[in-house]
Amino acid sequence: MPLALLALAIGAFGIGTTEFVIMGLLPDVAADFQVSIPTAGFLVTGYALGVVLGAPLMTFLGTRVTRKSMLMVLMGLFIVGNVVSALAPVFGVMLAGRVIASLAHGAFFGIGSVVAADLVAPAKKAGAIAMMFTGLTVANVVGVPLGTFVGQNFGWRLTFLVVAALGVLGLLGVAKLIPEQPKPEGVRIRHELAAFRNVQVLLAMAMTVLGFGGVFAAITYITPMMTETAGYATSSVTWLLVLFGLGMVGGNLLGGKFADRRLMPMLYVSLGALATVLALFTLTAHNKIAAAITIVLIGGLGFATVPPLQKRVLDQAAGAPTLASAVNIGAFNLGNALSAWLGGIVIAAGLGYTAPNWVGAALAASALLLALLSGVLERRTVSPGRLVAGHSPEPAAAAVPGESVPTASAPISR
Question: Which of 27, 112, 346, 365 has the fewest C-beta atoms lying within 10 Å of its C-beta?
Fold first, then answer.
């Protein structure tokens, strides 16, 4: 794999750390600013909404520069946002810093996916995307626990300064290792938007929302579930999340490996298994060992869908993948927000702390149904490598100067 993928992975590590570490530091932040825990929770919600809105916005703004230049701008935003958060004198300023940092999230992973895919041969594109996302998964194993430890023992502000330093390292890596590409010519925005007329792109994004939402329906409420139902001590939840992170790392790498061989079958298996495991979690959550094993499986199966879904969007967006790729990253966060809301509803209805697992199973099963529908539609083709999907192929979009087509081989041959 090219060394340039390391720069993308470092950036992903920093972004993953700043996204999730706040969950372990909410009580400290709330106490420092003298706000309630629910109010401090806006730091999580604000970040997620920033990702959803920032992905298309920052991608639009980046249409006039090279992808390398835009990645550097995004890492700059990430650094500024974390420094603002670390030095914030009042809660509102910290919230603004979180939003600034989140604006870089979706576009970085979206543009980074396109860059990673362009760095390798067609048969290794999903693996390259997975290598970039490894930074995000490792953040949950190393960055988040360490960041939480530093914040709880030396002050949460130091955690965000350290994360900003990671951003500087990522910025230097992008500047040094990512190869220069010529600036695309022509009106790219129109062609980027054209990708959303492809029903397969929309189906892939819906699978992202529902499939990843299934994971976070359970994980969002993992603390009360494990302490009240499984009988774990509160201090043990951090290590359970480390297990979840290890599952994410393994699933991400396996998903990238097998998606390069058989993308759609990989989605069928991972989504079907994820729905089954989430349903079983309502039972295994009552036993400590079984619960720990299930958490690893949820992390693994959930992230086994990430490289194939991201590559699916790149494949189907044809010659204009950048915006679609970035919006799909926003779809992951939309899934997080949707599932957390639905999980909260069933808990509030008195159905217990394991009830969100049924919500997750239903969401994952819905994603599987969409994957099966996508596979059926894909077989209705008029020519190799191009699917009808309810409209005719658009050669104009594929011929945009300076745009690379993520898959040189026909995606329907999997």
Answer: 27
- Contact, 214 vs 414, CB < 8 A? no
Cα–Cα distance, 307 to 256 (Å, whole number): 5
CATH topology of domain 194-408: Growth Hormone; Chain: A; (1.20.1250)
Q: Return the number of other C-beta atoms located less than 10 Å from residue 384's C-beta.
A: 10
Angle of CA points 218, 347, 102, to nearest 5°: 50
The rounded Cα 243 to chain-centroid distance in angstroms is 18
pLDDT for 392 beyond 50:
no
E strands along 257-301, which residues? none
pLDDT band of 382, cuts 50, 70, 90: very low
The whole model's pTM is what?
A: 0.72
Task: Please determine, looking at this structure, whether the domain spanning 1-185 carries the CATH number 3.40.1190.20.
Answer: no
Write out pLDDT tens, residues 205-257: 899 899 988 988 888 788 788 888 998 887 787 788 888 888 988 898 888 87
By residue count, the chain amounts to 414
